[in-house]
């Protein structure tokens, strides 16, 4: 079983002072947490500040998106070498907000995945179905399409040790969390799709994880941690979710 991993996706929230306060609290609160990995993904402008503020702690740094190109005339883009340069270990690719609000399709997400791994970043590949797709019993088909795009571009073993976040779109920011049984069923499907003997992909659940529902989700055998949005903006809530992963 992979080491549990808890990742905070701050989305487009924060300010320099908020970042300083939140990371000071996380640094203090995470000092005693053993047996799990913790990471935060602030907005791009705060990555350098965050890297300095996290120095000496065990909290890793991640970004929320990455360009497919390494450098060049691509106004507004941020490349994988830049993310490495400022101290990132992880980068989220294919978050449902990027897919639905910014038109990122599976082919583009796969290219971002490849750009990240080429620089030694660990991509956190987000996959998930819309509510209507679940209602139509299409969840596995949708996830297979999202996953296979990466396997086709990056090779059969690309996800063997990757991080995949199952985030049902209907659960993100809605307060409507998947049940532990729903999460487990999908995670088992994903593990079966990407794993061969000896492979250890880390499978995160994301979508309205809160301190009160985290333990039930993390107790599932194929749930290896969480990608946490709203609750990662409050240190006490995020730390309490992290603790729920330790006690499983
Ligand atoms: C997310 O956006 O990745 C997420 C899981 O958000 P929330 O926890 O707020 O649902």
Quick take:
By secondary structure, the protein is α/β, with parallel strands linked by helices. 42% of the residues lie in helices and 15% in strands. The chain has helices at 16-30, 47-54, 80-85, 96-101, 106-118, 131-135, 139-154, 180-194, 211-218, 235-246, and strands at residues 5-9, 37-41, 59-63, 90-93, 122-127, 163-166, 202-206, 225-228.
Write a structural description:
The chain has an eight-stranded parallel beta barrel with strand order 1-2-3-4-5-6-7-8, surrounded by seven helices. The chain has ten helices and eight strands. It has one domain: TIM Barrel, CATH 3.20.20.70. By secondary structure, the chain is α/β, with parallel strands linked by helices. The radius of gyration is 17 Å and the shape is globular. The model has no long low-confidence stretch (mean pLDDT 95). Helix 5 packs across helix 7 (139-154). The structure holds phosphoenolpyruvate (PEP).
Feature tags:
binds phosphoenolpyruvate, globular, single chain, 8-stranded parallel barrel, alpha/beta, 248 residues, TIM Barrel
């Amino acid at each position: 079983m992979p080491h549990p991993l808890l990742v905070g996706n701050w989305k487009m929230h924060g300010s320099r002072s908020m970042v300083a306060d939140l990371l000071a609290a996380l640094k203090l609160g995470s000092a005693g947490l053993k047996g799990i990995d913790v990471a935060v993904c602030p907005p791009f402008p705060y990555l350098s500040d965050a890297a300095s503020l996290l120095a000496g702690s065990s909290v890793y740094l991640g970004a929320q998106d990455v360009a497919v190109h390494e450098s060049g005339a691509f106004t507004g883009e941020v490349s994988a070498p830049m993310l490495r340069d400022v101290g990132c270990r992880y980068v989220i690719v294919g978050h449902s907000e990027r897919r639905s609000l910014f038109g990122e399709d599976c082919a583009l997400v796969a290219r971002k995945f490849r750009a990240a791994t080429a620089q030694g970043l660990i991509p956190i590949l987000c996959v998930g179905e819309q509510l209507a797709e679940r209602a139509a019993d299409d969840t596995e088909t949708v996830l297979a399409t999202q996953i296979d795009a990466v396997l086709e571009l990056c090779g059969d073993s690309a996800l063997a040790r990757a991080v995949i976040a199952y985030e049902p779109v209907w659960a993100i920011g809605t307060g409507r969390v998947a049940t532990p049984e729903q999460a487990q069923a999908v995670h088992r499907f994903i593990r079966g799709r990407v794993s061969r003997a000896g492979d250890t992909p880390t499978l995160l659940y994301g979508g309205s994880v809160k301190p009160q529902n985290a333990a039930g989700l993390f107790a599932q055998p194929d749930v290896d941690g969480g990608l946490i949005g709203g609750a990662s903006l409050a240190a006490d809530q995020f730390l309490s979710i992290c603790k729920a992963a330790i006690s499983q």
